[in-house]
Specification:
heterodimer; A: Cytochrome C Oxidase, Chain A; two-stranded antiparallel ribbon; B: Immunoglobulin-like; 9 strands; 48% helix; elongated; Cyt_c_oxidase_su2_TM_dom (chain B)
């Protein structure tokens, strides 16, 4: 018996060598980690932190809009001199609040928190790789993001205030500190922070692309990849091509602000003096900004759509409907996203001819988005649906994506955009389709992959309560904004009582603010669930969702290198759910066709003959 | 003291909620609830809630949209505005149909196909014909909508008619200034370097065309005649937005823009239509421009054509209201050319 035990020990040690056990120290394992799973969790925690701040900022300015007569003296401990003597928010600081809310939510929460978390965590696990192509670049990607976060965070507290020209930071407003105080140091910090942020995104994106192209396990062809990976792959390509243009825009802005150039500035009289700048065009900035800005919103939504494909199919116990159409529509959205940017600029005074072109191109991009929505719905048809928290949020995503998406059709039509541009109609549109839909994707992903990340289950009942409060909440907050927008109410307005046209909407604004506060409060249920379950959650089984994808074939808490032995080989696509003839209602990707003669389709029976199991 | 009480209350309420949660979890464990059982009841509730949400949502949506229609709809007061208004509601009809139909299907399927023990889902990986149909149909519908919009856009952004009333509107932190070309029908040139406390719009008043330009207190325009706004800004980007006219155009420093339209309802007409005797057309700023962005208001008065002509005739030119201006002009450089001196003398003489 002793002999057998010794042999067993030897066998275990042999396997341990396979996954290159490196025993680092606390700093290299948890702080400057190069393990994609740790980095994914780092992005997640950072994203959650920023979501609380970004949401909190919105509550503050919704107080001003919903309760314009309320004395906000009680906020002075938090906001100091930004509360005026009469207990109101300073009007410049109000603009800083909306600017930082937008910047934080778009970049730090929905780009870094969504892509950063799930691309990092899932790509190696779902394609069967030990880790990313370059663990070092991956580590840098997180730490550049951390640096960017620290700088942006600091900018919230400086005496002249954070950037205040809107998250779109159009010059000349963002170039001239004399136009608004946030365009002083606050804007400089914003620009520096964003340069590091973009560096972080590029480092990550290069990694994701290289890993997906080069490190797929045996048998994992592109057409056997889960849709999550397709989404992350195409998102990374979009980012690589478009983020550098924002760097260019920011660089030129830095030059205009600090080195006396005139890229964006011309004919300006401000603060009692005529500025010497001549020949520049503010429209140039807008073109450069939106060349990133538009792909950016698809960079945000595509990972969420990929996550939803996975969750809806697993929990309906059905293959995702139209796998190839889903890939095709992701590609279509990706390519088209580069040629529609100026639909944000219909009323800028740019050539109307450009307006026509961009309107026509924008129309086309609605089609692949519609296809995706129809495919999700058809996946539900004749399913056997299990409403996990993740599934609830995924269905919610489809609903919000449709609701927000259809108003895009109004805004893409330049004749209608004349009336709707920069009104609350736009605010309603992007908060539904991006602020809510993509956010739901992120939350769904957290619920679904929590067992893989932390080896425990989140509480389901709390998840249901969180979902229903949030789903109802976001509709109550953002749907009424359509009506205010149709009434012509402009964005970024401190108050609406100066104009007869808008002063009628006090009750609706109060309703929206109350709903926002309640919805924000509901997120604390999620936060409690998230942190509590990490330590006290029910220990997860190996494959709690009975899912087909590769990540569920690792141990409950995968170590460095993901699989203790050899990486599994893949034989089939990830959507063999409820296959006719099969005993089990799911067949993981690692099961050869040779093993399932009873459920093989004719072409799969052919493949079985070629398998070397 | 109050803050302390609030803090302690929040902590205590939090503690109570957490305790309820933990007790609930303990009960579940003690009961030995297997996954299948809890799936049954909660699953049914969630499925049912989707239907409740669907019905509640549809009722609220249609209820509010119909009953509050007059509150959120801005009456149209321009010719092209009638066109885009119709286009807006056609688009609404189409998108609402899509919105309602897809939601009915989404939530109905979620409810109808909820998990039932013993059920097997249908293995239905793709249907290319279906994909083709729901690619082509939306594409056609969208193409029709956009084509309509394209035609409207081309007309709206076309050159203004020759007989249009030209009015210059300049935005600055935080107000609007307007200038009329006066009897000669031409606006004089401007240069931002000429801006000072008196000459806020930087008009070159030494030029012959500027002599009769006037800068009124409020903007007047004639009903039924084309009006061309020449729009600019002198510090940051602003935007001329007049909801009733369905008019919007950015005011950009360094890049003059324009927008032309035909107002169809006078201020008096609108006062009657809205039942509000104090009705005024408001020009609001619609591009973030600084701390006063929300208070950049200008009044536009739409007069009957005869009233408008009377109003125009009664306006005094800027130079006549500021007689010392030209003589106070200091030459920009110490060297004053003879030609410049002559021009100044001529301009003064003709006042």
């Amino acid at each position: 018996m002793a002999v057998t035990e010794v042999q067993l020990d030897e066998h275990v040690e042999h396997a341990a060598h396979d996954d290159h056990e490196h025993h680092g120290n606390f700093v290299t394992n948890y702080i400057f980690s190069q393990d994609h799973k740790v980095i994914g969790k780092q992005f997640l925690i950072a994203g959650i932190f920023w979501a609380i701040i970004g949401g909190g900022l919105s509550i503050i300015f919704r107080l001003q809009l919903g309760f314009p007569d309320m004395n906000l003296e009680w906020l002075r401990p938090l906001l100091g001199g930004w509360i005026t003597e009469s207990g109101k928010i300073d009007t410049e600081f109000y603009l800083a609040l909306v600017t930082m809310h937008g910047t934080i939510m778009v970049f730090f929460v929905l780009t870094a928190g969504l892509s950063g978390t799930f691309s990092n965590f899932l790509i190696p696990l779902q394609i069967g790789a030990r880790d990313m192509a370059s663990g070092f670049m991956n580590m840098l990607s997180f730490w550049f993001f951390m640096l960017s976060s620290v700088i942006m965070f600091i900018s919230l507290f400086i005496s002249t205030g954070p950037a205040a020209g809107g998250w779109t930071i159009y010059p000349p407003l963002s170039a001239l500190p004399q136009a608004i105080s946030g365009s002083g140091l606050g804007m400089t910090l914003w620009l520096v922070s964003m340069v590091f942020f973009i560096a972080s995104q590029l480092l990550g994106g290069i990694n994701y692309i290289s890993t997906i192209i080069n490190l797929r396990t045996k048998g994992m062809s592109f057409t056997k990849m889960p849709l999550t990976i397709w989404a992350f792959f195409l998102t990374a390509i979009l980012g690589l091509l478009s983020f550098p243009v924002l760097v260019a825009a920011a660089l030129l802005l830095v030059f205009d602000r600090s080195f006396g150039t005139s890229f964006y500035l011309s004919d300006i009289f401000i603060g009692g003096e005529a500025l010497p700048n001549s020949g520049g065009s503010p429209i140039l900035f807008q073109h450069l900004f939106w060349f990133l800005g538009h792909p950016e919103v698809y960079i945000i939504i595509m990972p969420a759509l990929g996550i939803t494909s996975e969750i809806i199919s697993t929990n309906s116990r059905k293959p995702i409907f139209g796998y190839r159409a889903m890939i095709g529509s992701l590609m279509g959205i990706g390519i088209l996203s580069f040629v529609v940017w100026a639909h944000h600029m219909f009323v800028t005074g740019m050539s109307p001819f450009l307006g026509s072109i961009f309107m026509i191109l924008t129309l086309i991009i609605a089609v692949p988005s519609a296809i995706k929505s129809f495919n999700y719905i058809t996946t539900l048809w004749q399913g056997n649906i299990r409403f996990t928290s993740a599934m609830l949020f995924s269905i919610g995503l489809v609903s919000l994506f449709i609701s927000g998406g259809v108003t895009g059709i109004f805004l893409g039509n330049s004749a209608l955009d004349i009336f709707l541009h920069d009104t609350y109609f736009v605010v309603a549109h992007f908060h539904l389709v991006m602020g809510s839909s993509a956010f739901f994707g992120m939350v769904a992903g957290i619920y679904h992959w929590y067992p893989k990340m932390f080896g425990r289950m989140m509480d389901e009942k709390l998840g249901y309560i969180h979902f229903w409060l949030t789903f109802i909440g976001v509709y109550l907050v953002f749907f009424p904004l359509h009506y205010i927008g149709i009434a012509g109410f402009p964005r970024r307005y401190y108050s609406f009582t100066n104009f007869d046209a808008f002063s009628d909407f006090a009750d609706l604004n109060m309703f929206v603010s109350v709903a926002a506060i309640c919805t924000f409060g509901a997120q604390f249920i999620f936060l409690f669930n998230f942190f509590y379950s990490m330590y006290r959650g029910k220990k997860a089984s190996l494959n709690p969702w009975d899912s087909n994808t590769l990540e569920w074939t690792t141990p409950r808490e995968p170590g460095h290198g993901n699989w203790p032995g050899e990486i599994p080989t893949v034989y089939r696509w990830p959507y063999d759910y409820s296959k006719p003839g099969s005993e089990s209602d799911f067949i993981p990707q690692t099961v050869p066709y040779t093993n399932t003669p009873e459920s093989n389709l004719p072409h799969e029976a052919e493949e079985a003959k070629n398998e070397k199991v | 003291m109050l803050n302390f009480v609030i803090l302690v209350s929040v902590i205590l309420i939090g503690a109570i909620l957490v305790t309820i949660f933990r007790a609930h979890t303990l009960v579940q464990v003690v009961r030995g609830n297997k996954d299948g059982e809890s799936l049954g009841k909660s699953n049914k509730v969630n499925a049912a809630l989707f239907l409740v949400f669907l019905i509640g949502g549809i009722v609220l949506f249609f209820g509010y949209s119909y009953t509050q229609f007059d509150r959120y709809t801005v009456p149209v007061a321009s010719e092209h505005g009638e066109v885009t208004f119709k286009l807006f509601w056609i688009t609404t009809a189409v998108t609402t149909a899509a919105f309602i139909l897809t939601h009915i299907v989404l939530f109905w399927f979620a409810y109808r196909y909820q998990h039932k023990a013993g059920n097997t889902a249908k293995f239905y990986p793709h249907n290319d014909k279906l994909e083709l149909i729901w690619t082509v149909v939306p594409a056609i519908v969208l193409a029709l909508l956009i084509f309509d919009g394209f035609r409207a856009w081309v007309k709206i952004t076309d050159q203004a008619p020759d007989n249009a009333e030209v009015i210059e509107i300049m935005g600055y932190q935080y107000a609007w200034a307007s200038r009329y070309p006066g009897a000669d029908g031409k606006l004089g040139p401007y240069d931002y370097k000429l801006i000072d406390f008196e000459n806020q719009m930087g008009v070159d008043f030494t030029n012959q065309f500027s002599k009769d330009d006037f800068i009124p207190r409020e903007i007047h325009i004639p009903k039924g005649k084309p009006v061309l706004f020449k729009i600019r800004a002198r510090d940051v980007i602003h935007s001329v937005y007049v909801p009733h006219f369905r008019l919007q155009m950015n005011a950009v420093p360094g890049m003059p823009t324009q927008f032309w339209f035909v107002p169809t309802k006078s201020t008096a007409d609108m006062a009657e239509e809205t039942g509000n005797p104090d009705f005024t057309y408001e020009l609001v700023c619609n591009k973030i421009c600084g701390k006063g962005h929300f208070a950049m208001r200008a009044t536009i008065v739409v007069d009957e054509p005869a009233e408008y002509e009377k109003w125009k005739a009664s306006q005094k030119s800027w130079l006549s209201k500021n007689p010392e201006y030209l003589s106070s002009l200091q030459p920009a450089s110490p060297v004053v050319t003879e030609a410049a001196k002559e021009e100044i003398e001529e301009a003064q003489a003709s006042l």
